[in-house]
Write a structure and sequence with these properties.
Aspartate Aminotransferase, domain 1; 13 helices; globular
C-alpha cells in the first residue's frame, strides 16, 4: 500500500507546542537540563533533535516501519546498515548496484572481513543459489541504478527469512509514494533522501527504516556512536519535500513514460530501460509491487561508445549534465564516466552498464519540451560525430 497525497501531507504533524503548521527547526546543539540526566527528552543534538525526530517518525510511518533514522547522506545510511555485520559475514548484493555502494562494500568493508557476492537478483534462482551459511544481509535496489532492473521483493524476502538473514531494499528510485518494501517482507529500507524525498536538488540526506524495533535500536545506537547525523535544517527540507512528494512523483512518472516510449522508437537508440514499458523483462513484477514506474529512464545508443554518449550528454539544453537525480529539473548523466566510474569496466558491463548508457532523471517540465530537447541533442551529437577533428598544428 503506497501513500496517497492526503496521507503524505497529513503524515506531517502540527507542532503541539505552538500550533505551527510547519515543523519548527530546532537549530541548537544542546538542551538545558533540570538536573543531571533529567531533561525533556533531549540532551545533545547528535543523540537526538526534535526536527530530526519529526522526520524520523514521518518516514517510519510512510514506510510502515517501527523506526526511522536520519543520516547526513545516503552513503552514511548504507554504512550504518553494514555496521550491523561482523568480520566473516557475507553480503549478497544486486549486480547492478549504485557505484557508491560498490565502493563502500569493496574498498572499505572487504578489508574488515565482510565479503560481498554479486548476482542478478531479478532471477530468484540466482538469489537462492548464491546464499551461503555466512550470508547475513541480502542487498537489493529495485529499480536498480542505472539499468532499472526489478527484483521481486516478496520472493527474495521469503528466501532471506528461510536463511535467517536480513533483507535490505534501497527504495530511493521508487519512494514510499510508489512502493513499500516492508509490507512485502523487507527488514530494512534505505533512502537517499537527496533524491525524490527532498525533491529539489538542495540537500544531501540518507534514511534508514527498520521493520523491527530491535534492529532500529541497533542502528540508532550506530547513528549516535558514529555521528553521521542529519542537521535540523536539512531534516526540515526533507519534511518540506515530503509534503509534495505524491504530486511530484505522479508527474515524474507521467513524463518518464512518454519519454521512454519516444526513445523506444528512435533510430539512434539501441535499447531503452524503463519498467513502464511492456517490453521491459520485469514489467509485470514492477506492476505487481509498485504503484507506478518512476521518473528514471536509461538508454543505450546504437553507437556504443563513450565518445557517442559524451557527445549526446553535452548537447542537451533542458536536461542538465549532473550527478544525482529526483529533482524538479531534468538531469542526465553518463554512468560509465560519472556515477559508476568506481566500478571496474568489466564488472560494470557484465551488469548491463554499457559504454553508451545514458541515464535520464526526468523532471517536471512539459514532456513535449523535454522530447524536443532530446531530439535536438540527437541531431547535434550526430553532427559532431560526423565532423572531422581539426588537425593539431605542426610543432618542431
Amino acid at each position: 500500500m503506497s501513500y496517497n497525497a492526503t496521507q503524505l501531507i497529513h503524515s506531517i504533524p502540527v507542532d503541539p507546542l505552538t500550533g505551527a503548521i510547519s515543523v519548527p527547526i530546532y537549530q541548537t546543539s544542546t538542551f538545558v537540563q533540570e538536573a543531571p540526566g533529567v531533561n525533556k527528552g533531549y540532551d545533545y543534538a547528535r543523540t537526538n533533535n526534535p526536527t530530526r525526530a519529526a522526520l524520523e517518525e514521518i518516514i517510519a510511518r510512510l514506510e510502515h516501519g517501527s523506526t526511522g533514522i536520519a543520516f547526513g547522506s545516503g552513503l552514511a545510511a548504507i554504512d550504518a546498515v553494514v555496521k550491523l555485520l561482523e568480520s566473516g559475514d557475507e553480503i549478497l548484493a544486486v549486480d547492478d548496484i549504485y557505484g557508491g555502494a560498490f565502493r563502500l562494500f569493496t574498498h572499505i568493508y572487504q578489508k574488515f572481513g565482510v565479503t560481498v557476492n554479486y548476482t542478478d537478483t531479478t532471477n530468484i534462482e540466482n538469489v537462492f543459489n548464491a546464499v551461503t551459511p555466512k550470508t547475513k544481509l541480502i542487498w537489493i535496489e529495485t529499480p536498480t541504478n542505472p539499468t532499472l532492473k526489478i527484483s521481486d521483493i516478496e520472493a527474495i524476502a521469503k528466501i532471506a527469512k528461510a536463511h535467517h538473514c536480513l533483507l535490505c531494499v534501497d527504495n530511493t528510485f521508487a519512494s514510499p509514494a510508489l512502493q513499500n518494501p516492508i509490507l512485502l517482507g523487507a527488514d530494512i529500507v534505505i533512502h537517499s533522501a537527496t533524491k525524490y524525498l527532498g525533491g529539489h536538488s538542495d540537500l544531501i540526506a540518507g534514511l534508514v527504516i527498520t521493520k523491527e524495533k530491535e534492529t532500529g535500536e541497533k542502528i540508532k545506537f550506530i547513528q549516535n556512536a558514529s555521528g553521521a547525523i542529519l542537521s535540523p535544517f536539512d531534516s526540515w527540507l526533507v519534511i518540506r519535500g515530503i509534503e509534495t512528494l505524491s504530486l511530484r512523483v505522479k508527474q515524474h512518472c507521467s513524463n518518464a513514460q512518454v519519454i521512454a516510449e519516444y526513445l523506444s522508437k528512435h533510430p539512434s537508440v539501441e535499447k531503452v530501460f524503463y519498467p513502464g514499458l511492456k517490453s521491459h523483462p520485469n514489467h509485470e513484477v514492477a506492476a505487481k509491487q509498485s504503484n507506478g514506474f518512476g521518473g528514471i529512464v536509461s538508454f543505450t545508443l546504437k553507437n556504443d561508445t563513450e565518445e557517442a554518449a559524451t557527445g549526446f550528454v553535452t548537447s542537451t539544453k533542458l536536461f542538465r549534465l549532473a550527478e544525482s537525480l529526483g529533482g524538479v529539473k531534468s538531469l542526465l548523466c553518463h554512468p560509465a564516466q560519472m556515477t559508476h566510474k568506481s566500478i571496474p569496466a568489466e564488472r560494470r558491463k557484465t551488469a548491463g552498464v554499457a559504454d553508451s548508457l545514458i541515464r535520464l532523471s526526468v523532471g517536471l517540465e512539459e514532456a513535449k519540451d523535454l522530447i524536443q530537447d532530446l531530439e535536438q541533442a540527437f541531431e547535434s551529437s550526430e553532427l559532431k560525430h560526423k565532423q572531422p577533428l581539426e588537425k593539431e598544428p605542426f610543432n618542431n
